[in-house]
Amino acid sequence: DGQVFTSAGAGIKQTYEDAGGGDYVKIKSVTASDSASVEFVNGTSDVIFDGTYQAYKVIYTNVVLETDAKYILLYLSTDAGSNYVVPDGNYKYFSTIYGSFSEASQAYTNLGMISGYHFGNASGESASGEVTFFDPNQTAVNPLVHFTGVSIWASGAIAHHAGILRHSTNENIDAIKFLATSENITSGTFVLYGLK
């Protein structure tokens, strides 16, 4: 299991070896409890968010916000969380949302929304999804982020969303923050993984 047939070169016996790469390594889990935000800062509280991994993924599950009909935002930092880029034009966002209603698409520029919008906080309502950061430590090109997830809206409709974010400067990202558009994150789990 987990091995591949490998050639060491002409005239050398072939062997089975462990397959390299492609595994996600759990770095840190944070459980929100009436939290203003959830942060992952490189070098803080056992967090790795640098050039160690080629990609990073955050999986969030069963997130409930204090205020009904709001959504989750993602902010990025290039100075270890001292300052975060707030929605000021450095984000490019597109999302297609499906559910028990007609299809809808949105495109925004000044918004770091990653959860779809207006999900509910009544009994049984929440949002879950994943956010992937591609090589956030490089500075040659704009950092790109992909997100996808599911939620139950305040109206009771179910929705799927997917989209991309682009940070429009070539700076390495070393901290990320998730927060609600209004008030706190009541509950939910955020887990950071690194891709070998």
Calculate the terminal CA-CA distance, rounded to whole Å.
18 Å
Strand percentage lies at over 45%
Q: Roughly what is the average pLDDT, rounded to an integer? A: 84
Beta strand count: 13
Helix/sheet category: mainly beta
Overall radius of gyration: 19 Å
Strand order of the largest sheet: 3-13-5-9-10-11-7-8
Largest sheet: 8 strands, antiparallel
Q: With helices defined by DSSP (H or I, 4 residues minimum), what is the helix count?
A: 0
Contiguous uncertain segments of 5+ residues: none
Q: SSE order in H/E notation?
A: EEEEEEEEEEEEE
What share of residues is helical?
Answer: under 10%
Shape: globular
Please specify the SSE layout and strand pairing.
Blueprint (H helix, E strand, L loop, with lengths): L2 E4 L8 E4 L5 E12 L1 E5 L13 E11 L6 E6 L15 E7 L1 E8 L18 E8 L9 E9 L5 E9 L8 E6 L4 E11 L1
Antiparallel strand pairs: 1-2, 3-13, 4-12, 5-9, 5-13, 6-12, 7-8, 7-11, 9-10, 10-11
Short summary of the structure?
By secondary structure, the protein is an all-beta fold.
